[in-house]
Amino acid sequence: MPDNASAQQPGQPAQGPNEHYHQPLNQPRALRIGVAGPVGTGKSSILATLCRELAGELSMAVVTNDIYTDEDARFLRSAGVLPTERIRAVETGACPHTAIRDDVSANLDAVEDLEEAYGPLDLVLIESGGDNLTATFSPALADAQLFSIDVAGGGDVARKGGPGITGADLLVINKTDLAPHVEVDVTAMVADAERARDGLPVLALSKHDPESIARLADWVRAVLVRHRSGTHVPTDPGPMAPHSHSHDGS
Amino acid sequence: MALLAPYLLADGRLPVGAHTYSAGLEPAVAAGLTRAQIPALLRARLHTTVVTEAAATALALRAALRAPVDFAPVQEALAARTPTAPLREASAALGRGVHRLARRLDPDHPAVTALARIRPRPLRPVTLGALGAVLGVGEEELVHGVVYDELQTIASAALKLLPGDPLDSVAWIVAAEADAARTVTEALAVRTPAELPARTPPLTEQWALEHDRRERRLFLA
Ligand SMILES: Nc1nc2c(ncn2[C@@H]2O[C@H](COP(=O)(O)OP(=O)(O)O)[C@@H](O)[C@H]2O)c(=O)[nH]1
Ligand SMILES: [Mg+2]
Questions:
Q1: What CATH number is associated with residue A185?
Q2: Which atom of ligand 1 is nearest to the CA of A46?
Q3: pTM
Q4: Is Chaperone set as a keyword in this record (chain B) (predicted)?
Protein backbone atom coordinates (compact mmCIF):
# COMPACT_ATOMS: atom_id res chain seq x y z
CA MET A 1 0.00 0.00 0.00
CA PRO A 2 2.53 2.63 -1.01
CA ASP A 3 -0.18 5.28 -1.24
CA ASN A 4 -0.84 4.97 2.45
CA ALA A 5 2.69 5.37 3.68
CA SER A 6 1.81 8.78 5.05
CA ALA A 7 -0.84 7.18 7.27
CA GLN A 8 1.76 5.15 9.14
CA GLN A 9 3.00 6.25 12.51
CA PRO A 10 6.73 6.96 12.53
CA GLY A 11 8.66 3.91 13.60
CA GLN A 12 5.85 1.55 12.70
CA PRO A 13 6.90 -1.10 10.18
CA ALA A 14 5.50 -0.48 6.71
CA GLN A 15 4.71 -4.17 6.25
CA GLY A 16 3.48 -6.60 8.83
CA PRO A 17 1.00 -9.37 9.47
CA ASN A 18 -1.47 -6.98 11.06
CA GLU A 19 -1.23 -4.18 8.56
CA HIS A 20 -4.52 -2.37 8.19
CA TYR A 21 -5.32 0.68 6.24
CA HIS A 22 -5.97 3.60 8.53
CA GLN A 23 -7.34 6.87 7.32
CA PRO A 24 -5.15 9.76 8.50
CA LEU A 25 -6.60 11.00 11.75
CA ASN A 26 -7.13 14.54 10.54
CA GLN A 27 -9.20 13.42 7.56
CA PRO A 28 -12.55 11.62 7.54
CA ARG A 29 -12.96 8.60 5.27
CA ALA A 30 -14.21 9.15 1.74
CA LEU A 31 -17.66 10.58 1.29
CA ARG A 32 -19.97 7.86 -0.05
CA ILE A 33 -22.73 9.06 -2.31
CA GLY A 34 -25.41 6.62 -3.45
CA VAL A 35 -27.12 7.04 -6.81
CA ALA A 36 -30.51 5.34 -6.91
CA GLY A 37 -33.54 5.42 -9.17
CA PRO A 38 -35.41 3.19 -11.60
CA VAL A 39 -33.56 1.39 -14.40
CA GLY A 40 -32.88 3.53 -17.43
CA THR A 41 -33.32 6.90 -15.71
CA GLY A 42 -29.64 7.71 -16.19
CA LYS A 43 -27.81 6.59 -13.04
CA SER A 44 -24.77 5.22 -14.84
CA SER A 45 -24.68 8.34 -17.00
CA ILE A 46 -24.77 10.50 -13.85
CA LEU A 47 -21.82 8.54 -12.44
CA ALA A 48 -19.93 9.02 -15.70
CA THR A 49 -20.74 12.72 -15.69
CA LEU A 50 -19.59 13.16 -12.09
CA CYS A 51 -16.35 11.31 -12.76
CA ARG A 52 -15.72 13.48 -15.79
CA GLU A 53 -16.43 16.66 -13.81
CA LEU A 54 -14.72 15.83 -10.53
CA ALA A 55 -11.94 13.26 -11.09
CA GLY A 56 -9.53 16.12 -11.85
CA GLU A 57 -9.97 17.65 -8.40
CA LEU A 58 -10.97 14.65 -6.24
CA SER A 59 -9.64 11.15 -5.75
CA MET A 60 -12.62 8.99 -6.71
CA ALA A 61 -13.82 5.41 -6.99
CA VAL A 62 -17.05 3.73 -8.07
CA VAL A 63 -19.01 0.68 -6.91
CA THR A 64 -21.85 -0.69 -9.01
CA ASN A 65 -24.67 -2.99 -7.99
CA ASP A 66 -26.46 -4.70 -10.77
CA ILE A 67 -28.84 -7.57 -11.18
CA TYR A 68 -26.32 -9.05 -13.60
CA THR A 69 -23.15 -8.22 -11.82
CA ASP A 70 -20.97 -6.25 -14.15
CA GLU A 71 -23.07 -4.47 -16.81
CA ASP A 72 -22.88 -1.02 -15.23
CA ALA A 73 -19.24 -1.44 -14.32
CA ARG A 74 -18.40 -2.38 -17.89
CA PHE A 75 -20.31 0.64 -19.21
CA LEU A 76 -18.41 2.94 -16.88
CA ARG A 77 -15.05 1.37 -17.60
CA SER A 78 -15.63 1.77 -21.31
CA ALA A 79 -16.63 5.40 -20.79
CA GLY A 80 -12.99 5.97 -19.81
CA VAL A 81 -13.83 8.49 -17.09
CA LEU A 82 -11.88 6.79 -14.31
CA PRO A 83 -9.03 4.25 -14.22
CA THR A 84 -10.80 0.91 -14.73
CA GLU A 85 -9.45 -0.61 -11.52
CA ARG A 86 -11.23 2.07 -9.50
CA ILE A 87 -14.59 0.75 -10.71
CA ARG A 88 -15.82 -2.33 -8.86
CA ALA A 89 -18.96 -4.39 -9.33
CA VAL A 90 -20.47 -6.39 -6.48
CA GLU A 91 -22.52 -9.56 -6.70
CA THR A 92 -25.97 -9.03 -5.24
CA GLY A 93 -27.42 -12.54 -5.47
CA ALA A 94 -30.18 -11.11 -7.67
CA CYS A 95 -31.20 -8.92 -4.70
CA PRO A 96 -29.80 -5.48 -5.50
CA HIS A 97 -32.23 -3.88 -3.06
CA THR A 98 -30.96 -6.03 -0.20
CA ALA A 99 -27.37 -5.18 -1.09
CA ILE A 100 -27.89 -1.46 -0.50
CA ARG A 101 -30.23 -1.64 2.47
CA ASP A 102 -30.84 -4.81 4.48
CA ASP A 103 -27.38 -6.32 4.09
CA VAL A 104 -24.73 -3.93 2.81
CA SER A 105 -21.77 -6.27 3.50
CA ALA A 106 -20.66 -6.77 -0.12
CA ASN A 107 -20.78 -3.04 -0.79
CA LEU A 108 -18.88 -2.17 2.37
CA ASP A 109 -16.23 -4.71 1.39
CA ALA A 110 -15.89 -3.11 -2.03
CA VAL A 111 -15.66 0.42 -0.61
CA GLU A 112 -13.10 -0.65 1.99
CA ASP A 113 -11.04 -2.48 -0.64
CA LEU A 114 -11.00 0.61 -2.84
CA GLU A 115 -9.94 2.81 0.08
CA GLU A 116 -7.25 0.31 0.95
CA ALA A 117 -5.93 0.10 -2.60
CA TYR A 118 -6.20 3.75 -3.67
CA GLY A 119 -6.84 5.67 -0.46
CA PRO A 120 -7.12 8.19 0.85
CA LEU A 121 -10.12 8.76 -1.41
CA ASP A 122 -12.33 11.83 -1.37
CA LEU A 123 -15.44 10.40 -2.96
CA VAL A 124 -16.92 6.97 -3.63
CA LEU A 125 -20.00 6.83 -5.86
CA ILE A 126 -22.26 3.79 -5.46
CA GLU A 127 -24.86 2.97 -8.11
CA SER A 128 -27.92 0.99 -7.08
CA GLY A 129 -29.19 -1.81 -9.25
CA GLY A 130 -32.78 -1.51 -8.20
CA ASP A 131 -35.61 -1.73 -10.65
CA ASN A 132 -38.30 0.35 -9.01
CA LEU A 133 -39.11 3.47 -7.07
CA THR A 134 -38.61 2.07 -3.58
CA ALA A 135 -34.92 1.12 -3.51
CA THR A 136 -32.90 3.55 -1.40
CA PHE A 137 -29.55 3.35 0.37
CA SER A 138 -29.09 2.58 4.04
CA PRO A 139 -27.03 5.20 5.88
CA ALA A 140 -24.84 2.26 6.90
CA LEU A 141 -23.55 2.41 3.32
CA ALA A 142 -24.19 5.87 1.85
CA ASP A 143 -23.59 9.18 3.60
CA ALA A 144 -25.82 10.94 1.09
CA GLN A 145 -27.86 9.85 -1.87
CA LEU A 146 -29.35 11.23 -4.99
CA PHE A 147 -32.37 9.71 -6.63
CA SER A 148 -32.85 9.88 -10.36
CA ILE A 149 -36.12 9.92 -12.27
CA ASP A 150 -36.46 11.05 -15.85
CA VAL A 151 -38.93 13.07 -17.84
CA ALA A 152 -39.55 10.09 -20.13
CA GLY A 153 -41.19 8.30 -17.20
CA GLY A 154 -43.92 10.93 -17.35
CA GLY A 155 -44.64 14.15 -15.48
CA ASP A 156 -46.61 12.34 -12.77
CA VAL A 157 -43.73 10.34 -11.34
CA ALA A 158 -42.53 13.15 -9.08
CA ARG A 159 -45.99 13.69 -7.64
CA LYS A 160 -46.56 10.00 -6.90
CA GLY A 161 -43.64 10.02 -4.51
CA GLY A 162 -41.89 7.09 -2.91
CA PRO A 163 -39.04 7.15 -0.39
CA GLY A 164 -36.33 8.14 -2.87
CA ILE A 165 -38.37 10.92 -4.40
CA THR A 166 -39.51 12.38 -1.09
CA GLY A 167 -36.44 11.74 1.06
CA ALA A 168 -33.22 11.50 -0.98
CA ASP A 169 -30.72 14.27 -0.32
CA LEU A 170 -31.08 15.35 -3.94
CA LEU A 171 -33.76 14.48 -6.48
CA VAL A 172 -32.60 14.59 -10.08
CA ILE A 173 -35.18 15.00 -12.80
CA ASN A 174 -33.09 13.72 -15.65
CA LYS A 175 -33.02 13.94 -19.44
CA THR A 176 -34.75 17.31 -19.57
CA ASP A 177 -33.62 17.58 -23.20
CA LEU A 178 -36.24 14.94 -23.98
CA ALA A 179 -39.12 16.86 -22.38
CA PRO A 180 -40.53 18.34 -25.61
CA HIS A 181 -40.60 14.87 -27.18
CA VAL A 182 -42.54 13.26 -24.36
CA GLU A 183 -44.89 16.20 -23.72
CA VAL A 184 -43.66 16.88 -20.20
CA ASP A 185 -43.53 20.33 -18.63
CA VAL A 186 -40.23 20.30 -16.71
CA THR A 187 -41.10 23.37 -14.64
CA ALA A 188 -44.32 21.75 -13.43
CA MET A 189 -42.54 18.47 -12.74
CA VAL A 190 -39.91 20.27 -10.66
CA ALA A 191 -42.63 22.16 -8.77
CA ASP A 192 -44.49 18.90 -8.04
CA ALA A 193 -41.29 17.33 -6.80
CA GLU A 194 -40.47 20.28 -4.59
CA ARG A 195 -43.92 20.05 -3.00
CA ALA A 196 -43.40 16.32 -2.34
CA ARG A 197 -39.99 16.98 -0.75
CA ASP A 198 -40.63 19.58 1.92
CA GLY A 199 -37.82 21.84 0.81
CA LEU A 200 -35.19 19.25 -0.11
CA PRO A 201 -33.40 20.14 -3.35
CA VAL A 202 -34.53 19.15 -6.84
CA LEU A 203 -32.26 19.39 -9.87
CA ALA A 204 -33.41 19.34 -13.50
CA LEU A 205 -30.54 17.67 -15.36
CA SER A 206 -29.55 16.78 -18.87
CA LYS A 207 -26.24 15.41 -19.98
CA HIS A 208 -26.53 17.82 -22.88
CA ASP A 209 -26.94 20.87 -20.60
CA PRO A 210 -23.57 21.95 -19.16
CA GLU A 211 -25.15 24.41 -16.74
CA SER A 212 -27.20 21.66 -15.09
CA ILE A 213 -24.10 19.46 -14.91
CA ALA A 214 -22.24 22.26 -13.13
CA ARG A 215 -25.05 22.47 -10.57
CA LEU A 216 -24.88 18.70 -10.00
CA ALA A 217 -21.11 18.86 -9.42
CA ASP A 218 -21.57 21.83 -7.08
CA TRP A 219 -24.08 19.87 -5.02
CA VAL A 220 -21.52 17.07 -4.58
CA ARG A 221 -18.82 19.59 -3.64
CA ALA A 222 -21.14 21.15 -1.05
CA VAL A 223 -21.95 17.76 0.51
CA LEU A 224 -18.24 16.99 0.62
CA VAL A 225 -17.51 20.23 2.47
CA ARG A 226 -20.19 19.38 5.05
CA HIS A 227 -18.91 15.80 5.32
CA ARG A 228 -15.39 17.00 5.97
CA SER A 229 -16.43 19.57 8.54
CA GLY A 230 -18.50 16.95 10.33
CA THR A 231 -21.77 18.84 9.85
CA HIS A 232 -23.31 16.45 7.36
CA VAL A 233 -25.74 14.05 9.00
CA PRO A 234 -26.67 11.02 6.85
CA THR A 235 -30.44 10.68 6.67
CA ASP A 236 -32.38 7.62 5.69
CA PRO A 237 -35.19 8.13 3.18
CA GLY A 238 -36.44 4.79 4.46
CA PRO A 239 -37.64 1.79 2.54
CA MET A 240 -41.21 3.11 2.42
CA ALA A 241 -42.81 6.43 1.63
CA PRO A 242 -43.71 8.30 4.83
CA HIS A 243 -47.42 8.01 5.53
CA SER A 244 -47.84 11.76 5.59
CA HIS A 245 -47.08 11.84 1.87
CA SER A 246 -49.34 9.01 0.81
CA HIS A 247 -52.51 11.11 0.45
CA ASP A 248 -51.98 11.73 -3.25
CA GLY A 249 -52.98 8.20 -4.07
CA SER A 250 -51.82 6.91 -7.40
CA MET B 1 -26.19 -22.16 26.58
CA ALA B 2 -27.33 -19.36 24.33
CA LEU B 3 -31.02 -19.32 23.51
CA LEU B 4 -31.26 -17.00 20.52
CA ALA B 5 -27.78 -17.27 19.03
CA PRO B 6 -28.23 -20.57 17.16
CA TYR B 7 -31.28 -19.14 15.43
CA LEU B 8 -29.45 -15.95 14.53
CA LEU B 9 -26.63 -17.97 13.01
CA ALA B 10 -29.04 -20.05 10.95
CA ASP B 11 -31.08 -17.09 9.73
CA GLY B 12 -30.53 -16.19 6.11
CA ARG B 13 -31.44 -12.61 7.01
CA LEU B 14 -28.34 -12.25 9.16
CA PRO B 15 -26.70 -9.26 7.46
CA VAL B 16 -23.31 -10.78 6.70
CA GLY B 17 -23.44 -10.86 2.92
CA ALA B 18 -24.51 -14.48 2.51
CA HIS B 19 -27.27 -13.53 0.07
CA THR B 20 -24.54 -13.01 -2.50
CA TYR B 21 -23.53 -16.69 -2.30
CA SER B 22 -25.17 -19.71 -3.96
CA ALA B 23 -22.94 -22.40 -2.38
CA GLY B 24 -21.90 -23.64 -5.78
CA LEU B 25 -25.36 -23.75 -7.33
CA GLU B 26 -24.89 -21.02 -9.93
CA PRO B 27 -21.64 -22.55 -11.25
CA ALA B 28 -23.34 -25.97 -11.31
CA VAL B 29 -26.37 -24.63 -13.18
CA ALA B 30 -24.10 -22.99 -15.73
CA ALA B 31 -22.54 -26.42 -16.24
CA GLY B 32 -25.96 -27.93 -16.93
CA LEU B 33 -27.36 -28.96 -13.54
CA THR B 34 -31.17 -29.25 -13.67
CA ARG B 35 -33.79 -28.56 -11.02
CA ALA B 36 -34.44 -32.28 -10.62
CA GLN B 37 -30.79 -32.76 -9.68
CA ILE B 38 -30.78 -30.24 -6.83
CA PRO B 39 -31.50 -32.84 -4.09
CA ALA B 40 -28.55 -34.84 -5.39
CA LEU B 41 -26.37 -31.73 -5.29
CA LEU B 42 -27.39 -31.13 -1.68
CA ARG B 43 -26.41 -34.68 -0.74
CA ALA B 44 -23.16 -34.47 -2.67
CA ARG B 45 -22.14 -31.29 -0.90
CA LEU B 46 -23.16 -32.66 2.51
CA HIS B 47 -20.75 -35.55 1.98
CA THR B 48 -17.90 -33.45 0.66
CA THR B 49 -17.31 -29.71 1.08
CA VAL B 50 -19.69 -29.33 4.00
CA VAL B 51 -17.87 -31.93 6.12
CA THR B 52 -14.67 -29.95 5.67
CA GLU B 53 -16.34 -26.60 6.36
CA ALA B 54 -18.28 -27.80 9.37
CA ALA B 55 -15.28 -29.57 10.87
CA ALA B 56 -13.12 -26.48 10.34
CA THR B 57 -15.79 -24.36 12.06
CA ALA B 58 -15.81 -26.64 15.10
CA LEU B 59 -11.99 -26.57 15.22
CA ALA B 60 -12.08 -22.79 15.01
CA LEU B 61 -14.55 -22.55 17.86
CA ARG B 62 -12.30 -24.72 20.02
CA ALA B 63 -9.34 -22.52 19.10
CA ALA B 64 -11.42 -19.43 19.92
CA LEU B 65 -12.05 -20.71 23.43
CA ARG B 66 -8.38 -21.45 24.20
CA ALA B 67 -5.94 -18.86 25.54
CA PRO B 68 -4.10 -17.49 23.71
CA VAL B 69 -6.34 -17.73 20.64
CA ASP B 70 -4.44 -19.07 17.64
CA PHE B 71 -6.44 -19.59 14.47
CA ALA B 72 -3.42 -20.16 12.24
CA PRO B 73 -3.44 -23.99 12.32
CA VAL B 74 -7.10 -24.30 11.32
CA GLN B 75 -6.93 -21.43 8.81
CA GLU B 76 -3.90 -23.00 7.14
CA ALA B 77 -5.32 -26.53 7.18
CA LEU B 78 -8.55 -25.29 5.60
CA ALA B 79 -6.79 -23.15 2.98
CA ALA B 80 -4.66 -26.15 2.04
CA ARG B 81 -7.84 -28.18 1.54
CA THR B 82 -9.45 -25.48 -0.61
CA PRO B 83 -7.15 -25.61 -3.62
CA THR B 84 -9.23 -23.44 -5.93
CA ALA B 85 -8.42 -19.76 -5.50
CA PRO B 86 -11.94 -18.47 -6.29
CA LEU B 87 -13.36 -20.70 -3.54
CA ARG B 88 -10.82 -19.44 -1.03
CA GLU B 89 -11.64 -15.90 -2.07
CA ALA B 90 -15.38 -16.48 -1.74
CA SER B 91 -14.88 -18.00 1.69
CA ALA B 92 -12.76 -15.03 2.74
CA ALA B 93 -15.35 -12.58 1.40
CA LEU B 94 -18.11 -14.31 3.36
CA GLY B 95 -15.87 -14.48 6.40
CA ARG B 96 -15.41 -10.75 6.20
CA GLY B 97 -19.12 -10.18 6.78
CA VAL B 98 -19.07 -12.52 9.77
CA HIS B 99 -15.96 -10.78 11.10
CA ARG B 100 -17.65 -7.38 10.79
CA LEU B 101 -20.61 -8.68 12.79
CA ALA B 102 -18.38 -10.21 15.48
CA ARG B 103 -16.52 -6.89 15.73
CA ARG B 104 -19.79 -5.03 16.14
CA LEU B 105 -20.93 -7.38 18.92
CA ASP B 106 -17.71 -7.71 20.90
CA PRO B 107 -14.70 -5.87 19.44
CA ASP B 108 -12.37 -6.71 22.33
CA HIS B 109 -13.12 -10.42 22.54
CA PRO B 110 -9.79 -12.28 22.18
CA ALA B 111 -11.21 -14.38 19.33
CA VAL B 112 -12.26 -11.23 17.46
CA THR B 113 -8.93 -9.50 17.88
CA ALA B 114 -7.22 -12.75 16.79
CA LEU B 115 -9.18 -12.64 13.51
CA ALA B 116 -7.64 -9.29 12.67
CA ARG B 117 -4.17 -10.81 12.78
CA ILE B 118 -4.85 -13.39 10.05
CA ARG B 119 -3.44 -12.72 6.57
CA PRO B 120 -4.74 -13.44 4.01
CA ARG B 121 -8.19 -12.79 5.41
CA PRO B 122 -9.76 -15.46 7.63
CA LEU B 123 -11.92 -18.00 5.82
CA ARG B 124 -15.57 -18.17 6.76
CA PRO B 125 -15.36 -21.23 9.07
CA VAL B 126 -12.64 -19.47 11.07
CA THR B 127 -14.77 -16.35 11.50
CA LEU B 128 -17.78 -18.47 12.41
CA GLY B 129 -15.72 -20.09 15.15
CA ALA B 130 -14.95 -16.65 16.52
CA LEU B 131 -18.56 -15.51 16.24
CA GLY B 132 -19.66 -18.72 17.96
CA ALA B 133 -17.36 -17.86 20.86
CA VAL B 134 -18.71 -14.31 21.01
CA LEU B 135 -22.29 -15.57 21.07
CA GLY B 136 -21.64 -18.40 23.50
CA VAL B 137 -22.79 -21.09 21.09
CA GLY B 138 -21.78 -24.72 21.62
CA GLU B 139 -19.89 -26.58 18.89
CA GLU B 140 -22.77 -28.88 18.11
CA GLU B 141 -25.16 -25.97 17.58
CA LEU B 142 -22.60 -24.13 15.53
CA VAL B 143 -22.05 -27.11 13.25
CA HIS B 144 -25.81 -27.57 12.88
CA GLY B 145 -25.93 -23.96 11.74
CA VAL B 146 -23.21 -24.48 9.13
CA VAL B 147 -24.90 -27.56 7.71
CA TYR B 148 -28.34 -26.00 7.67
CA ASP B 149 -27.02 -22.78 6.14
CA GLU B 150 -25.49 -24.70 3.25
CA LEU B 151 -28.79 -26.39 2.45
CA GLN B 152 -30.79 -23.19 2.80
CA THR B 153 -28.29 -21.24 0.69
CA ILE B 154 -28.64 -23.63 -2.22
CA ALA B 155 -32.40 -23.97 -1.85
CA SER B 156 -32.85 -20.18 -1.76
CA ALA B 157 -30.49 -19.54 -4.66
CA ALA B 158 -32.48 -22.10 -6.65
CA LEU B 159 -35.44 -19.70 -6.51
CA LYS B 160 -33.36 -17.27 -8.58
CA LEU B 161 -31.49 -19.72 -10.78
CA LEU B 162 -33.93 -22.58 -11.45
CA PRO B 163 -37.23 -21.07 -10.36
CA GLY B 164 -40.06 -23.26 -9.19
CA ASP B 165 -42.38 -23.71 -6.23
CA PRO B 166 -40.65 -22.32 -3.11
CA LEU B 167 -42.28 -25.10 -1.09
CA ASP B 168 -40.13 -27.57 -3.02
CA SER B 169 -37.07 -25.94 -1.49
CA VAL B 170 -38.33 -26.74 1.98
CA ALA B 171 -39.09 -30.32 1.02
CA TRP B 172 -35.54 -30.78 -0.34
CA ILE B 173 -34.09 -29.64 2.97
CA VAL B 174 -36.32 -31.91 5.02
CA ALA B 175 -35.41 -34.83 2.78
CA ALA B 176 -31.70 -34.19 3.41
CA GLU B 177 -32.08 -34.74 7.16
CA ALA B 178 -30.33 -38.13 7.39
CA ASP B 179 -27.40 -37.00 5.27
CA ALA B 180 -27.11 -33.82 7.30
CA ALA B 181 -26.96 -35.80 10.52
CA ARG B 182 -24.09 -37.89 9.14
CA THR B 183 -22.25 -34.71 8.18
CA VAL B 184 -22.59 -33.34 11.70
CA THR B 185 -21.27 -36.55 13.28
CA GLU B 186 -18.33 -36.69 10.91
CA ALA B 187 -17.48 -33.03 11.39
CA LEU B 188 -17.56 -33.17 15.18
CA ALA B 189 -15.32 -36.23 15.21
CA VAL B 190 -12.43 -34.25 13.74
CA ARG B 191 -10.17 -33.34 16.67
CA THR B 192 -7.15 -31.58 15.16
CA PRO B 193 -6.45 -29.41 12.10
CA ALA B 194 -4.17 -32.16 10.75
CA GLU B 195 -7.16 -34.53 10.68
CA LEU B 196 -9.33 -32.10 8.72
CA PRO B 197 -10.67 -34.11 5.79
CA ALA B 198 -9.83 -32.83 2.31
CA ARG B 199 -13.13 -33.19 0.48
CA THR B 200 -12.76 -31.25 -2.70
CA PRO B 201 -14.81 -32.76 -5.51
CA PRO B 202 -13.08 -32.05 -8.83
CA LEU B 203 -16.30 -30.85 -10.50
CA THR B 204 -16.96 -28.34 -7.71
CA GLU B 205 -13.46 -27.00 -8.23
CA GLN B 206 -13.75 -26.88 -12.01
CA TRP B 207 -17.15 -25.18 -11.93
CA ALA B 208 -15.86 -22.60 -9.46
CA LEU B 209 -12.96 -21.78 -11.77
CA GLU B 210 -15.29 -21.42 -14.74
CA HIS B 211 -17.66 -19.23 -12.73
CA ASP B 212 -14.86 -16.90 -11.79
CA ARG B 213 -14.29 -16.07 -15.44
CA ARG B 214 -17.96 -15.60 -16.27
CA GLU B 215 -19.61 -12.25 -16.83
CA ARG B 216 -23.20 -11.39 -15.87
CA ARG B 217 -23.30 -13.68 -12.86
CA LEU B 218 -25.67 -13.21 -9.94
CA PHE B 219 -23.68 -14.86 -7.15
CA LEU B 220 -20.17 -14.70 -5.81
CA ALA B 221 -19.70 -18.48 -6.09
N1 LIG C 1 -31.44 12.26 -23.96
C2 LIG C 1 -30.81 11.91 -22.87
N3 LIG C 1 -30.53 10.60 -22.66
C4 LIG C 1 -29.89 10.26 -21.52
C5 LIG C 1 -29.51 11.22 -20.56
N6 LIG C 1 -28.90 10.56 -19.51
C7 LIG C 1 -28.90 9.25 -19.86
N8 LIG C 1 -29.50 9.07 -21.05
C9 LIG C 1 -29.70 7.78 -21.76
O10 LIG C 1 -30.60 6.99 -21.02
C11 LIG C 1 -30.28 5.62 -21.17
C12 LIG C 1 -30.13 4.95 -19.81
O13 LIG C 1 -29.04 5.58 -19.12
P14 LIG C 1 -28.22 4.86 -17.98
O15 LIG C 1 -27.28 5.87 -17.47
O16 LIG C 1 -27.68 3.57 -18.45
O17 LIG C 1 -29.39 4.57 -16.94
P18 LIG C 1 -29.40 3.63 -15.63
O19 LIG C 1 -30.05 2.35 -16.01
O20 LIG C 1 -30.25 4.38 -14.64
O21 LIG C 1 -27.99 3.48 -15.17
C22 LIG C 1 -29.01 5.56 -22.00
O23 LIG C 1 -29.35 5.27 -23.31
C24 LIG C 1 -28.45 6.96 -21.84
O25 LIG C 1 -27.68 7.36 -22.96
C26 LIG C 1 -29.83 12.60 -20.80
O27 LIG C 1 -29.52 13.51 -20.02
N28 LIG C 1 -30.47 12.88 -21.97
MG1 LIG D 1 -26.93 1.72 -14.70
A1: 3.40.50.300
A2: 15
A3: 0.89
A4: yes
